[in-house]
Design brief:
By secondary structure, the protein is an all-alpha fold. It is 75% helix and 0% strand.
Length: 483
């Protein structure tokens, strides 16, 4: 059989060529076109991850906000987190140093400041902060060293004020006077500078002191101007010293009383006051010399005998204190302070029956004196917890000072220890209405809530007390209670 042309398979004839390309050719053509088109397009941008925001500025701002609100525990945490975000930046450590300074934690402040210095902090700021932290520790020699160093690097009014105080406490009278005069003249609204410049000038030139004292217009300056009217130099200096001691200024008092004794060595009372001022300045040996000399000069002076007895009492020498304190009371039995000194003496001796007698005597002699009642309240709260006389004394204190938050706080604590939970809570809440930053009241309220099993409220109050607290002993007590 003859096979026709163009027919058959497998070599039995030619297969006719299709009129359209095969699939692979179509695909190839499509790929070529695609590549050509792609070659004419601009390259696609690479995929880049969005930048991670820097947490550092936000943490610093957050810490600053907390610090301004006195939420210091939260501020501390924020600054620590900021230091972790930028380990070599000194800023968080400077912030921590200032926070600890305001928090009365100078040792931790020094540690933070050292970390800031190691990371290149501004030397002027470091020197200024170091002076402030040394002042918080009462190390006036170092305050002067670092204060002078800070001022050599740039003017700083707060540091200049600390420097003036350091000069005063170290007895560098001329330097203190010049520094306070500079502060007063550069800012007449600085009442403390005017007051102290006036006092120091009054030691050498009463007429020159008057403009500063009038500008100050403080209780101390008013009392001082009255003292300056005395024309007898020795008496005037003694009165100036008494004024300063009454206002809690032992460094100023010592400057005046040294002159009083120099002008009149026979004045036992001036010498006794000088010894008392030196004791308050921490110059214990010098204080004892003057106090013992005053008691020998005038054994019948209730002031000399009482101050020497008080000195021995504070030194823990009870046997030496007792005869002087008893003699002072015998010489002036109407003075409630002497009864309180004897109460303290017998408390140290452990004779609480006699203590109660002397406390009752003090409040009998001064039934309207809130200071006497406060000492009485604190005695019972510190030594005789739960004694109903503590509550009675606290109520008397509140009656005399109804707008004083601390008085209500003491009443709240007394009621808490006496087992009156409702009364304690009311008194403590009133204390915080009057004094929202009263750390002891927050701590006592936390103690009350803890006793009631209200743990969240207790911890909130404890934390607030820690944020506000400036007393290391209370801080440790609160931390134990939180645990």
């Amino acid at each position: 059989m003859r096979v026709g042309k163009g027919k058959g398979v497998c070599g039995q004839g030619r297969i006719p060529r299709p009129q359209t390309p095969f699939l692979w050719e179509r695909i190839f053509g499509f790929l070529v076109c695609t590549l050509l088109v792609a070659a004419c397009r601009p390259p696609a941008p690479a995929l880049i991850a969005p930048p991670t925001p820097d947490p550092f500025p936000g943490l610093i701002a957050l810490g600053d906000t907390y610090a301004a609100e006195k939420s210091r525990t939260a501020a501390e945490t924020a600054y620590r987190q900021a230091s972790a975000a930028r380990p070599q930046d000194p800023t968080p450590y400077l912030r921590l140093a200032r926070l600890y300074l305001a928090w009365n934690r100078p040792e931790e402040g020094m540690s933070a400041l050292l970390s800031a210095e190691e990371r290149g902090a501004d030397p002027r700021e470091v020197a200024s902060l170091r002076a402030a932290l040394y002042a918080a520790r009462g190390d006036w020699e170092q305050v002067v060293v670092w204060g002078e160093r800070a001022l050599a690097l740039g003017d700083d009014r707060p540091t200049r004020r600390l420097l003036a105080q350091g000069y005063l406490w170290l007895g560098k009278e001329e330097a203190a006077r010049a520094t306070y005069q500079f502060l007063a003249e550069s800012d007449p609204e600085d009442l403390e500078a005017c007051e102290r410049a006036g006092f120091l000038l009054a030691l050498i030139d009463p007429a020159a002191a008057l403009p500063y004292l009038r500008a100050a217009s403080t209780p101390l300056s008013s009392d001082l101007m009255a003292a300056l009217e005395d024309e007898d130099i020795a008496r005037r200096m003694a009165r100036m010293g008494q004024v300063a001691l009454a206002r809690g200024e032992p460094a100023l008092a010592a400057r005046a009383l040294e002159r009083a004794v120099a002008w009149d060595p026979a004045s036992a009372d001036a010498r006794a006051l000088l010894g008392h001022a030196l004791a308050l300045l921490g110059r214990s040996d010098d204080a004892r010399v003057h106090l013992e000399a005053a008691a020998r000069q005038a054994p019948d002076s209730p002031l000399a005998r009482s101050l020497l007895g008080l000195y021995y009492l504070r030194q823990g020498n009870l046997a030496a204190a007792r005869p002087h304190l008893e003699a002072a009371y015998d010489l002036d039995p109407q003075n409630p302070a002497f009864a309180l000194y004897l109460a303290s003496l017998y408390a140290e001796l452990g004779d609480y029956v006699v203590v109660d007698i002397w406390l009752a005597e003090a409040t009998r002699l001064a039934p309207e004196d809130p200071d006497v009642w406060e000492v009485t309240v604190r005695f019972y709260l510190e030594r005789r917890l739960g004694d109903p006389r503590g509550v009675e004394a606290a109520r008397a204190l509140v009656r005399l000072t109804p707008e004083r938050g601390e008085a209500h706080g003491l009443l709240g604590r007394a009621l808490l220890f006496a087992g009156d939970s409702a009364g304690a809570e009311a008194a403590l809440r009133r204390a915080l209405e009057l004094s929202p930053d009263l750390a002891s009241a927050h701590a006592d309220l936390g103690r009350l809530y803890a006793l009631q099993g209200r743990w969240d409220l207790a911890d909130r109050e404890f934390l607030r007390a820690l944020d506000l607290n400036t007393d290391p002993a209370l801080r440790q007590e609160i931390e134990r209670m939180r645990e």
